[in-house]
Design brief:
single chain; alpha/beta; 7 helices; 19% strand; elongated
Length: 206
Amino acid sequence: MSRHAGNTAAVHKNATMLPPHAVPAVELPAPSQQLATKAVETLGWHGIVLPQMTLLGRKVVVVAELLPDAHAERLCFGCGPVVDRTTVATWVWPELAGQVPPAAVRVRGVLAVAKHWRTGLASTVPFTLHGAAAMVLPSSVALTDDYLTNCLPRARRYGVSIVTADPDGTVSMDLVGKREHAPSEHTAVTRWVNEVVYEQILATAS
């Protein structure tokens, strides 16, 4: 028997292995959209809570507000949402300054509802450069050593807020992250995200 095999046997000879079905799966106590709406109230974000969407490859819920003046200007010129990413990428070219439509929405925050903190963090971190971000997790996740040792330090580092959901569906703030802020300047990514959100707000309103 190899040295590694002997060590493994010594470590596990008194351990009781649970069958996979005996380990309870972590479940969300309510539908994602319902938890997201409650979390937005707890976070104090103001705006329209949009249906969950896939943005930059992540499933997130965006909270945004329509900018009336910019929206009216775009209506006057017949310029609705432009969601073609290649087209929007040209809007930040210096030679097009003053020739592109104004941003018609302001993103107030982006949050993810997840069963595991790693999923929630992976979904929200890309948006922390552009504003507030948060994740909603089952309260049972917040009771683990993994959460305390690994999740909280990472969430603090990236400025992600954490809201926990109890089995009865009530939510509470567990970690206050970075407050929302407007990006100093638009990039090709932020302009495209803005257009996708603009389209979603109009679709929701209709």
